[in-house]
Amino acid sequence: MNEFGNYQFKCTLKLGDIYGQIIIWLAVIFASLAAALSLMSHPIYSLAAVGLIIVLSLPFLLFAFVTTLFNHIEISPIDQTAKVKAVRSNVVAQPGTGVVKAAI
């Protein structure tokens, strides 16, 4: 039932991995704002230009980010002996009571 309990999921994504994507996204935003300002004499065209730029660029930028995120997720099996040792190191027996509690 718990088939993912024997695996460790680790995200190795760092800011440097997505820094270029952030810069590109800022450039797209500034380009759409520049287009809006240049077409300010016709507000409908201005709004349409901003919407068109954002709508056309958003799927590509999201795809690039999600792909980068998935490429930086590591799935590794957990060694069962190390798992048992970790569980045993967190268990504390209370002397004289026979009660065993997990240390938090």
Structure commentary:
The structure is a single chain. The protein has a domain at 7-78. The strands form two sheets. A two-stranded antiparallel ribbon has the order 1-2. A two-stranded antiparallel ribbon has the order 3-4. The protein has helices at residues 15-38, 43-71, 80-89, and strands at residues 7-11, 73-77, 91-94, 99-102. By secondary structure, the chain is of the alpha+beta class. Helix content is 61%, strand content 17%. A hairpin with a 4-residue loop joins strand 3 (91-94) and strand 4 (99-102). It is rod-shaped.
User: Strand order across the biggest sheet?
Assistant: 1-2
Category from helices, strands and their pairing:
alpha+beta
Q: Report the radius of gyration as a whole number of Å.
A: 26 Å
What is the subunit organization of this protein? Answer: single chain
- Give the distance, in angstroms, between the N- and C-terminal Cα atoms: 26 Å
The helicity comes to: 55-70%
Name the beta content range: 15-25%
Query: Which ranges are low-confidence, i.e. pLDDT below 50, for 5 or more consecutive residues?
Result: none
Task: Choose one word for the global shape.
Answer: rod-shaped
Helix and strand run: EHHEHEE
